[in-house]
Design a protein that fits this description.
It is built from four helices and no strands. It is mainly alpha-helical. It folds into two domains: about 35 residues; about 70 residues, no CATH class. The radius of gyration is 27 Å and the shape is elongated. It starts with a helix and ends with a helix.
């Protein structure tokens, strides 16, 4: 083979390798879009992060008496949270309870502010 033919062959092989890599990336992206379970899991994780962040913000802004009550509630719930980490269903129930407590605290604060 001539030098030009070998050079052309090398270019074609490089193009084939690049095309295979692009095809693999496209297939992976499509598989990720079709993986509903992974997407739902990611959304739950993101929601949990947002709830934790908002909980911290509300806790810091709460009046001192409310902070004391929340602190006591956290201490009381701490052993349950450890158990709930092993049980996903319980974790979701505890998370729902925490959200409910936050909503109650927020409503109480709003009523006190409005009075």
């Amino acid at each position: 083979m001539s030098a030009d033919a070998e050079s052309r062959k090398a270019e074609i092989e490089a193009d084939i390798v690049a095309t295979r890599a692009e095809l693999a990336q496209t297939a992976d992206a499509l598989a990720a879009k079709l993986d509903v379970k992974a997407q739902a899991s990611q959304r739950v994780h993101d929601a949990g992060d947002k709830v934790s962040e908002k909980y911290g913000e509300l806790k810091e802004k709460a009046p001192q008496p409310v902070q004391k009550v929340v602190g006591k509630a956290e201490q009381a719930v701490s052993p349950l949270m450890a158990q709930a980490a092993a049980d996903k269903r319980r974790t979701m129930l505890v998370l729902g309870g925490v959200v409910a407590v936050l909503l109650v605290v927020r409503r109480v604060r709003a009523r006190r502010s409005g009075s």
